[in-house]
Structure formats: structure tokens, C-alpha cells
Amino acid sequence: MTALCAQESIYNLLPRVEEKSVKFPRYISTFRPSVKLEIQEKKAPWKTMGPAKTEVPSPKNFLQKHSKEPKLPERKRDEGRKKILTVPSVPHVTDHPLMGIQSKKNFINTNATAVIMGVAKKPQPICVDRKQGDKYFLETSGLVPKYINKKDYGLTPKYVIKRKEEVKRAQEEYDAYVKETLRQKAMKRLSDEERESLLQGLKKNWEEVHHEFQGLSVEIDTLPKKFHKERLEAQMKQLEHDINIIEKHKIIYIANK
User: Does residue 167 register a pLDDT over 90?
Assistant: First the structure.
């Protein structure tokens, strides 16, 4: 039904002019020949699998057993002969050793003379800890009193005396430092005149702060006024606390810092 409606449209009765599409010429870059030549020079030899113009290995040259193991150089024939020549040759049947060589030295008399004229060797002293026990050299056992014969036996070594003097000097310096520190931090007692003058000074300061506090405005409507009032109240409170402490205690000590 839709197809019939489309054919019976009024617009279909009017003649139509067919419009021909204009096709523009295809764009070709001026650098195309140079680029094409450059690509051929660089990539053309590698278009195949692997480098170009490479000989394919022959199927006869396959991998054999022990072919990749290192091979020793071939042995020359003259090397073995040289070693054999260095060995002394076997004596011939006609060769005879030297016979009849005798020495006129009397070994019996020589040995006897050496024993008679020689100094007897002293046995090394040893000690035994128990019957059928082990043997030890006496000199290294500590039983030989050889150290008491020394010139400085029983005397205190010099390094020990020097070390004691250094320790004593260090202890004296430390004690002097402690005494000086305690003296500087010692408590000092205030006299009655100093206590009275201190008390009067605190009261005078309280009166000045109180007078300044009385001169404040009645209406505190800004922050500076509020902070100023709080500061004066804190000063008056602190001064009152100090005055009460001094009046309460007759004897006052001050630490030296």
C-alpha cells in the first residue's frame, strides 16, 4: 500500500533532471616518487623471511652428537718421543759399575771419640701429677719459682700507679665541680628589711594596677577593652597571691639559679 502511495504522489508527475556528480581528480603528492624509492631501498631486501640472499643450510649438515663439545688439539708425534728421551737409558750389558773404591776413615773410632768428647745432654725437668699420671714440663707448670728472682718482684707496676693517679685526679675534679654547683644553687635567706621592702613594692604595684582598673569604662563593648580588663584582673590576682604568701611566712629563702 505504501509503495502505491509513493508512486501516485504529485511530485512524481513532474519531470526530474538527473544531476551528474562531478568527480575531482585524485590528489597525488609531489614527493611520492622519492618516498617510494626510499622505501624500496630500505625495506625491499628484507621482505623475505630472514636476511636477503642468505644460503639455506644443507640437510646433510645436521646437528651431530658431541659436535658442540670443545675439542682438544691434536697430539703431535714428537711430543711423546721427547719425554721418553729425557728418561735415563737402561745400562748396557757390557757396562760395569766402579768397583774397589774404599774409604780409609775409621768410623768406629770417630763415633767413640765424638761420644767421649761430647757434652752430656741434660734431661729436661718434668713433673708428674700422680702415680702413673701424665708428665708435664716443670718450667711451664708454674712450680718453678723463677718470678721471685726478678728485680721488680712484689712492686706495683708503673701503669697501675699512673692509672690510680688519673682516677684520683678525675674524682677530685668531679668533687670540686659538685661543690661549685651546690654553692651556686644554695638557698639565700631574705633579711627583714628586704622582706619588708619587697612587700611594700608588691602593694604599691597592686595599687597602681587597681587604680588603672578603676579607670576603665563601664561598658566593655570591644575586644581590646575586654582583653585589657582581663589582663589587669590577672595581674591583680597574681599580686594578691604573692602578698599573701610573703605576709604568711616570716622567713623566706631564694634559690640562686
Answer: yes
Q: State mean pLDDT over 140-165.
A: 86
Arithmetic mean of pLDDT, 195-214: 90
Local structure of residue 245 (DSSP, 8 states): H
Farthest-apart Cα atoms in the chain, separation: 165
Measuring CA to CA, how many Å separate 170 from each of 25, 163, 177, 205? 109, 11, 11, 51
Which of the residue ranges 15-24, 86-95, 104-113 has the most confident prediction, judged by mean pLDDT? 104-113
The torsion angles phi and psi of 136, rounded to 5 degrees, stand at -135, 150
Residue 101 has pLDDT above 90, yes or no: no
Q: Centre a 10 Å sphere on the Cβ of residue 202 and count the other Cβ atoms it contains.
A: 19
Contact 216, 175 (CB under 8 A): no
Q: Is 243 within 8 Å of 223 (Cβ atoms)?
A: no
**Angle CA 144–147–151, to nearest 5:** 145
Three-state DSSP state, 27:
coil
C-alpha cell at 43: 625495506
Where do we find the cell 728485680? 151
CA proximity to 251, closest of 205, 187, 200: 187
Report the amino acid identity of residue 158: K
Check if the beta carbon of residue 205 is closer than 8 Å to that of residue 239.
yes
Q: State pTM to two decimals.
A: 0.32
Helices then strands, each counted (H, E), the chain: 7, 4
Q: Residue 163: which H helix or E strand, with range?
A: helix 158-184
How far apart CA 194 and CA 174 sit, in angstroms, is 36
pLDDT for the residue 147:
79
Q: Identify the pLDDT of residue 49.
A: 59
Which residue is listed with cell 589587669?
232
